[in-house]
Amino acid sequence: MSSVIQGFPKNFLWGGATAANQLEGGYNEGGKGLSSADMIAYIPKEQRSKEISHAMEITSERIEKILSGEFEARFPKRDGIDFYHRYKEDIALFAELGFKVFRMSLHWSRIFPNGYDEQPNEEGLQFYDDVFDELLKHGIQPLVTLSHYETPLGLTQKYNGWVSREVVEHYTRYAETVFRRYKDKVKYWLTFNEINVITISAFTGGGVVVDRLDNKLQGMYQALHHQFVASSIATKLCHEIIPDAKIGCMLARMETYPNSCNPEDIRKAQLANQMNLFFTDVHARGEYPKFMDRYFEENNIVLHKEDGDDELLKQYTVDYISFSYYMSITVAENPEGGNEAAGNLVAGSVMNPYLETSDWGWQIDPIGLRVTLNAMYDRYQKPLFIVENGLGAYDKVEADGSVHDPYRIDYLRKHIEQMKEAIKDGVDLMGYTAWGPIDLVSMSTSEMSKRYGFIYVDQDDDGNGTLARSRKDSFAWYKQVIASNGEQL
């Protein structure tokens, strides 16, 4: 009798994924303080440089001007899509889709307005109680990210964010507070969203203002070490406070291919994959991999560790590994002119001629998802969870209000087919939460026109619109996928 698993497990967790700073709104309601996301201004496409489009760093001067009102701009993440007031309507739509799980984050500054407060904000805690109750009423399990690009601004102003060891203590207080408060309502947790992004945009990933650093690279990796420590402490606390819960880490997975069989290209791709998987190595294996010793030495990085840090990392590893996957990346040691992949997230990558490209220049690679699932499961032998995957695209609203998005259905279908193949390969895959089941504000560009949702939200890049929700064609398709447990694609 064959032991190969056919199809998705019966308890597979289908759903969708969001972040508080991209959909919640209510930035100045309910006692909430400001966060790093509230400092990100919208920049029209014609004014946007390549660097800004990735996730611009915020300077100390910019923060001061924003707070004083001297810097005039729109800050779309402050308003999101008004989930703060419309969560019951949105959750009802998620229930109609058949969600088993809904990935969301807590706005840390809604619970601890400055980040360093001694006591939490009860109004903020109650808001999430209400959201969890609404989800559970519909049979939807919350999957909660503790920190998803939402560092309280107070921690930036007082400590320069995660560069300072003191922030570990404040994160620990926050984590313990929410574990105790929601222990009967939330059984799936993540410590940090896409933790590797702190080395790409320190402000986005850790509330760090780089112009306050003497050595940018040193500061970013020191901040990362503090996040690793905080993640292990949170894992320990979660297991103690909610014994039946599972807590994981989260990586922006960047599967990297060599441009050719030239050994130089192969080595470049191998190094890129090592540097990407370094983050999950620490979370899942409990120690810094040896290849990082050379990287730190060659870049004059000397991490300050306190006594017991290494033992803490080793003892409290994650229960599962989650990641985002949108595309693969191709690199060449000596790229020929004219084939740089300008739309991809990683500078220096080149176009892969075998792949299609999205409206935003991201190369679409469903088989790459199977490749990365196999590679990660071989490496860690821990359950995996795809917590972000989707297609950002321009959507057209027809005269009758409908939105026909066959391109989104095609993208998701092909990726889900490869997930099924990976499960047949023997990968232990817990679930899948498609990114942005409802249109929300883009993380990197703060625009609304980059839409991912099954649910259309009537709001444009300038913040105009009724915020009315409507179902796209992909809504009925994904509902069928979930109802059939991935058999009807």
TrEMBL record:
Domain of life: Bacteria
Pfam families associated with the record: Glyco_hydro_1
Swiss-Prot/TrEMBL keywords: Glycosidase, Hydrolase
InterPro entries in the cross-refs: GH (IPR017853), GH_1_N_CS (IPR033132), Glyco_hydro_1 (IPR001360), Glyco_hydro_1_AS (IPR018120)
Organism from which the protein derives: Paenibacillus bovis
Hydrolase found in the keyword field: yes
Name of the protein described by the UniProt record: Amygdalase
PANTHER family associated with the record: 6-PHOSPHO-BETA-GLUCOSIDASE ASCB-RELATED, GLYCOSYL HYDROLASE
Record's keyword annotation contains Hydrolase: yes
GO MF, one annotated term: beta-glucosidase activity
Family classification: Belongs to the glycosyl hydrolase 1 family.
NCBIfam families: PRK09593.1 (NF007158), PRK09852.1 (NF007356)
GO biological process: carbohydrate catabolic process
Active site positions: E388 (nucleophile)
Annotated GO CC locations: cytosol
